[in-house]
Design brief:
Elements (H helix, E strand, L loop, with lengths): L5 E4 L4 E4 L7 E4 L2 H21 L18
Antiparallel strand pairs: 1-2, 2-3
């Protein structure tokens, strides 16, 4: 499965979350680090859902677009 993540750049680091997995978040000093950390966070999050017999949400068909104003 492929889950989409949203990455936000802060002053000193990056943070990320997955819209399909509420509460699944991570940070990293670089964009690559936050992506790697999110892969681990998503795996851990899904394992927790399965252990608690909670259905794992399927990835949505979110499409990202940028609009210039």
């Amino acid at each position: 499965m492929k889950y989409k993540i949203i990455i936000e750049e802060g002053q000193n680091n990056f943070s990320a979350f997955s819209p399909d997995l509420p509460g699944c978040v991570s940070t990293g000093k670089t964009k690559d680090e936050v992506i790697q950390n999110m892969q681990e966070a998503i795996q851990f999050h899904i394992e927790g859902l399965l252990e608690d017999n909670i259905p794992v949400p399927k990835p949505s068909n979110i499409v990202l677009a940028e609009i210039s104003i």
